[in-house]
């Protein structure tokens, strides 16, 4: 501003308005807010643009301190800056410093740029402040919008870290997407395991037919299916002009015009879609796409984390149950050894020989004992305490043989199919256990199809495992190739509650007397001990698919040599050093040995047995349990004695407790091993093989 013409002594020109009127008009018409302040910082004049920007009527602005226009948080800094400016006033144009913030009458804040100019009027010092609101600048508006999107993503990130319930994320993500993008509709779809349809997992403003939990076909003529087929984001400028897929009539009826959809991707695999729709045409641009992709990536990572945690927790629960059942099986096998041994003694007792009724009772008891041994064998399979003999197995050949057997024995209404690759496929596994595992699965499938159906076996090579099973492969290499063996039925399927407990021992949905609940648990134990994994996919009314992943022969450890199949004659007069910490088992073993013509020296622990050999070893063979309580284990006893007496043969026995593999790792034991419970004939064959294997006979003496 300047002084009037009168104050300068210059007359007004007759050709136009006087200078004073021009300056007043310019001040009033200037598009930026103009404030004229005195040295005290009080506003003495303001133009209409200032009233509009700051929200004050002209009457309230006059005499108002400029400090009232400064946010409280920065007011002390502003006062210091104004004092410094008063001491050295100078012109400062807009854009020379960072943007500032002004406080409006209602307390809201607006981003501004400010230019300052010192002014002298009639000898008085003033300052003209030109204030420009910059939030309407395209670049500023874009920066603010990006900051807003980033805040929404950060908000969801905090929720994802804190939330343990995935359902909360599924509910919140569509709501946040709709709020941030000011969209009228947001839909989150997750792909079902069969990949034939999507299920609506969450949404906001859902239209008819898209309620949470509803199914949507996975076809390229739907928005979600089109996103999946494209493998990337899809932008819709106008639904009314869309020809790539079919727009639901309900969308058009709701007035929706534009849309943006992105895939949810987990480890390179699409697991769902997230889409938003708006009533505004061409509503979504690159910034909106970046925001929605960030949101979907965050959701996919969170779901994967929850899924991995659930898989690990499930594996840990099964591991705990396995340790318990392994210990039970060990103790039970010792009891069965005593029971079976004494039954065999009674069968041969002179008072009962020829007694038909007594012999029938003894035979029934012996059969029950063998069934008990089979039961503990299943427990040991689940708890991974059995000893396996892995060899190269042609899975294709095994499946064909199993299918042929099942076609003869299963209900003829069950159609059995086998799909194997040409040339076969070989994995490293215990062939007998694998055959038993697949048979268990097939029997469960038969029971799930009482009216008949389809039972399909297939095998193929895979390099990448599904996410839910890689979480369980804690001890196995992640970069190996596996044989994927699948068994699929068209039965009634399982509920989520049943699926969660399917591998637990003794859990069964069959009526009393029709199942022990150990079928799938033994499958689980066998596969895990074989350094593989199991995947169960099922739903009520949709059948069941159970998949075993076993390492191929070129990536697994060397197979353990099989025990000699042929029986070897037991040398006469064999001298046996017997060590067994269970007194009743010791008595049974000693009776068996003496009935075989052996000379026996028995001890309950290892240390006295070692001390008895101070002057030499008069024995041909050491028969010892592996778990001997406190002190030396049976394996360590065998090592010490064979180091001193290389000709001593060794036969180990064990109930396959948790102690069996402790300290031994996966290394095959160098001695013959006889599992408990055992009968005299089994002991005889094991003794003969141990003597032949150890070069025994009289060489130890």
Write the layout of secondary structure elements.
Elements: H1 5-8, H2 19-29, E1 33-37, E2 43-46, H3 48-54, H4 58-61, H5 75-87, E3 100-103, E4 109-121, E5 124-133, H6 138-162, H7 166-181, E6 185-191, E7 197-204, E8 215-217, H8 223-230, E9 234-236, H9 249-253, E10 258-266, E11 269-278, H10 286-347, H11 356-383, E12 391-394, H12 395-409, E13 414-419, E14 426-429, H13 431-447, E15 453-462, H14 467-470, E16 482-489, H15 496-501, H16 519-529, E17 533-538, E18 544-551, E19 575-579, H17 583-595, E20 599-603, H18 606-611, E21 621-625, H19 634-644, E22 649-654, E23 672-675, H20 680-694
Parallel strand pairs: 13-15, 19-20, 19-21, 21-22, 22-23
Antiparallel strand pairs: 1-2, 1-5, 3-4, 4-5, 6-7, 6-11, 7-8, 9-10, 10-11, 12-14, 15-16, 16-18, 17-18
Helix pairs in contact: 6-7, 6-10, 7-10, 10-11, 10-17, 11-16, 12-13, 13-16
User: Could you give me the name of the CATH homologous superfamily of the largest domain?
Assistant: GAF domain
Q: Which class best fits the helix and strand makeup?
A: alpha+beta
Rg over C-alpha atoms, rounded to the nearest angstrom: 42 Å
Tally of distinct domains:
4
What does this structure look like?
With 701 residues, the chain is an alpha+beta fold. The protein folds into 4 domains: 31-136, Beta-Lactamase (2-Layer Sandwich), CATH 3.30.450.20; 140-310, Beta-Lactamase (2-Layer Sandwich), CATH 3.30.450.40; 391-551, Heat Shock Protein 90, CATH 3.30.565.10; 575-700, 3-Layer(aba) Sandwich (Rossmann fold). The protein is 40% helix and 21% strand. The chain has 20 helices and 23 strands. A 6-stranded antiparallel β-sheet has the order 8-7-6-11-10-9, with helices on both faces. A 5-stranded antiparallel β-sheet has the order 2-1-5-4-3. A 5-stranded mixed β-sheet has the order 13-15-16-18-17. Helix 7 runs antiparallel to helix 10, helix 10 runs antiparallel to helix 11 and helix 10 (286-347) crosses helix 17 (583-595). It is elongated and about 145 Å long. The N and C termini lie far apart (124 Å).
């Amino acid at each position: 501003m300047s002084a009037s013409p009168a104050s300068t002594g210059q007359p007004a020109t007759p050709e136009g308005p006087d200078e004073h009127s021009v300056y007043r008009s310019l001040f009033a018409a200037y598009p930026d807010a103009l404030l004229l302040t005195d040295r005290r910082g009080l506003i003495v004049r303001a133009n209409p643009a200032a009233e509009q920007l700051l929200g004050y009527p002209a009457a309230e602005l006059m005499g108002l301190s400029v400090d009232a226009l400064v946010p409280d948080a920065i007011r002390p800094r502003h006062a210091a800056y104004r004092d410094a400016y008063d001491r050295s006033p100078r012109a400062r144009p807009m854009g020379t410093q960072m943007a500032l913030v002004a406080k409006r009458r209602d307390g809201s804040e607006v981003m501004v740029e400010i230019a300052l100019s010192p002014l002298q009027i009639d000898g008085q010092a003033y300052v003209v402040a030109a204030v420009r609101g910059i939030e309407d600048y395209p670049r500023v508006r874009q920066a603010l919008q990006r900051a807003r999107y980033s805040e929404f993503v950060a908000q969801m990130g905090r929720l994802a870290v804190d939330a343990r319930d995935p359902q909360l994320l599924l509910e919140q993500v569509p709501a946040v997407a709709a709020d941030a993008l000011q969209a009228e509709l947001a839909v989150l779809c997750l792909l079902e395991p069969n990949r034939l349809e999507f299920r609506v997992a969450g949404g906001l403003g859902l239209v008819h037919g898209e309620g949470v939990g509803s199914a949507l076909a996975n076809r390229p003529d739907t928005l979600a299916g089109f996103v999946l087929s494209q493998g990337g984001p899809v932008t819709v400028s106008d639904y009314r002009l869309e020809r790539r897929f079919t727009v639901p009539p309900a969308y058009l009826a709701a007035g929706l015009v534009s849309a943006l959809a992105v895939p949810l991707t987990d480890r390179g695999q699409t697991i769902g879609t997230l889409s938003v729709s708006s009533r505004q045409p061409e509503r979504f641009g690159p910034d909106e796409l970046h925001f929605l992709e960030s949101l979907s990536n965050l959701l996919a990572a969170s779901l994967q984390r929850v899924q991995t945690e659930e898989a690990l927790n499930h594996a840990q629960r099964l591991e705990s149950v396995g340790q318990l059942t392994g210990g039970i099986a060990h103790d039970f096998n010792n009891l069965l050894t005593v029971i079976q041994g004494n039954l065999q003694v009674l069968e041969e007792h002179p008072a009962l020989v020829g007694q038909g009724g007594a012999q029938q009772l003894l035979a029934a008891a012996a059969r029950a004992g063998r069934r008990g041994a089979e039961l503990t064998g299943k427990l040991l399979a689940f708890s991974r305490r059995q000893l396996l003999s892995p060899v190269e197995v042609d899975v294709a050949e095994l499946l064909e043989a199993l299918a042929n057997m099942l076609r003869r024995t299963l209900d003829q209404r069950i159609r059995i199919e086998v799909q194997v690759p040409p040339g076969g496929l070989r994995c490293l596994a215990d062939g007998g256990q694998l055959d038993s595992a697949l048979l268990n699965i097939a029997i469960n499938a038969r029971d799930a199809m009482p009216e008949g159906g389809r039972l399909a076996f297939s095998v193929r090579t895979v390099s990448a495992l599904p996410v839910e099973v890689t979480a369980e492969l804690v001890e196995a290499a992640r970069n190996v190739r596996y044989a994927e063996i699948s068994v699929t039925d068209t039965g009634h399927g399982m509920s989520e509650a049943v699926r969660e407990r399917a591998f637990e021992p003794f859990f069964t949905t069959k009526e009393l007397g029709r199942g022990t609940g150990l079928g799938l648990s033994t499958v689980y134990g066998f596969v895990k001990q074989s350094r593989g994994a199991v995947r169960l996919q099922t739903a009520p009314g949709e059948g069941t698919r159970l998949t075993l992943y076993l390492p191929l022969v070129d990536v697994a450890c060397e197979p353990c040599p099989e025990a000699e199949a042929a029986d070897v004659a037991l040398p006469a007069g064999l001298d046996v050093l017997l060590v067994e910490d269970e007194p009743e088992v010791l008595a049974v073993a000693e009776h068996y040995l003496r009935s075989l013509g052996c000379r026996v020296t028995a001890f309950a622990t290892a240390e006295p047995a070692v001390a008895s050999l101070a002057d030499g070893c008069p024995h041909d063979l050491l028969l010892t349990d592996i778990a001997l309580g406190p002190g030396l284990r049976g394996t360590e006893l065998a090592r010490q004695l064979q180091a001193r007496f290389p000709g001593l043969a060794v036969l180990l026995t064990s109930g396959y407790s948790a102690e069996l593999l402790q300290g031994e790792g996966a290394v095959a034991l160098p001695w013959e091993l006889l599992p408990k419970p055992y009968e005299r004939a089994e002991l005889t064959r094991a003794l003969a093989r141990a003597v032949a294997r150890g070069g025994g006979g009289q060489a130890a003496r």
